[in-house]
Amino acid sequence: MTPPILYDFELSGNCYKVRVFASMINLGLVLQNVEVLKGETRTEEFARLNPWQQIPVLRDGDFVVQDSQAILTYPALKYTPQWIDTTPMGMGAIVEWLSYAAKEVSNGPQLSRLKFLDPHEDIDLVRAQAIGLKVLRLLDNSLASRDWLCLGRPTIADIAVYPYVGLCRQGKLPLDGYPHIHPWLA
Amino acid sequence: MTPPILYDFELSGNCYKVRVFASMINLGLVLQNVEVLKGETRTEEFARLNPWQQIPVLRDGDFVVQDSQAILTYPALKYTPQWIDTTPMGMGAIVEWLSYAAKEVSNGPQLSRLKFLDPHEDIDLVRAQAIGLKVLRLLDNSLASRDWLCLGRPTIADIAVYPYVGLCRQGKLPLDGYPHIHPWLA
Question: Does this UniProt record's set of keywords contain Transferase (chains A, B) (predicted)?
Answer without folding.
Answer: yes
